[in-house]
Amino acid sequence: MAKLWGGRFQKSTDKKVDDFNSSIRFDKRMYKQDIKGSVAHATMLGRQNIIPKEDSDKIVAELKNILNDIEDGKVEFEIDAEDIHMNIEKILIERIGDAGKRLHTGRSRNDQVALDIRMYLMDETADIEEMLIHTLNVLVDLASDHTETIMPGYTHLQKAQPVTFAHHLMAYFEMFKRDLSRLRDCRKRTNVMPLGSGALAGTTYPLDREFVASELGFDAVTMNSLDGVSDRDFVIELANCLALVMMHLSRFCEELILWSSNEFSFVEMDDASTGSSIMPQKKNPDVAELIRGKAGRVYGHLMGLLTTMKGIPLAYNKDMQEDKEPIFDSIDTVKLCLPVFCDMIATMTVKKDNMLKGSKGGFTNATDVADYLVKKGLPFREAHAVVGRMVFYSIEHDKALDDLTMDEFKEFSDIIEDDIYNAISMETCVNDRKVIGGPAKEVVEKAIADAKEFLAQQ
Fold this sequence. Notes:
The protein is mostly helical. The protein has helices at about 15-20, 25, 30-45, 55-70, 85-95, 100, 110-145, 165-190, 210-215, 225-230, 235-260, 285-310, 325-345, 350-360, 365-375, 380-395, 405-410, 420-425, 425-430, 440-455, and strands at about 150-155, 160-165, 190-195, 220, 265-270, 350. A hairpin with a 2-residue loop joins strand 1 (about 150-155) and strand 2 (about 160-165). It starts with 14 loop residues before the first helix and ends with a helix.
């Protein structure tokens, strides 16, 4: 098959080179964006009298027909045509002849592909933003049911202080909310139109770039033609945003994997999870494990993109074809993981009694004993030392701090009174932490209310 770019070549391209060079197997997913961009470009060419208006109209009409045929499954793309851009242009020329040959006037595949990838990523980012909003709603709904469900909070995976499950869930709300903000911010830098940059040096045709940008919904046009065709910052930035989404999913999944173990027994996965082929008692947290595993591939794509771009001189180089598969797979992975994650946490059973029991072990109220002594007048450092000795004593005698008798408490400090027992109960430990951002029920309920208000505005 004769190449659309083959005028200066005297030999046919080697079949292996055709296969190696072709990107149609993965960039065909951008057919809508390619056609939409070509429609806007052709319309502008006619408006500017760069090509005859009747040819412009023919091109636009047939491109819309091609779009319908692709979506109806009537079009088969060809490897020999290399990519989605050349495939569509080839079909157009076959259908309307010489008029179709005028479409590429004033543009290059370099700025065309830069346009398509920006448009595609903005569309996909919008979908992921909706998924994140759904995830935030699921977290808020679950948190609303657990403002009184006390559980241990950890540092170094050692029990530290009691919190509530709602407080823990709302920590992830904040993380995913930042992910949403990052994606929206990334879209601002993606939403800049490169078409008109040509191969690298613009064009001598009087293109109306602002018109095309307006037609396609871009906020601005690129201000340097070299940068316009060779910039992939927006791809890498999105890959980073997606890696952070996966990191947050993976962290929560790691906790769910631990919590569903017999050692923790804080949650139980729904029966829709999987079992073992050999051990009949098993209910495996496979969904959580797979999400945790898939985070690694998204991290790898980010590093791959950075490595691909790090040594490329201006302007366009064929290396940049390698930007698509990693970002496409990162998008697909995130879009696969978010819905199943939401279903998983919405259907799991939360074992409130075990969480409460877990919070009472590990001396999670030790800080509250120290705070009690400070409020009675003891300097904090002295209080810290006193409680350290209490903990050592309690470990030796296999007791919790709130199991100590008043006589035992008095051995450590004579300022301790009967009110110590209420001061260091799990409920008091949680609900006296009323500082903004704390785990107290009233504070968490305010955070949930604020979250619902935020989501109502999305």
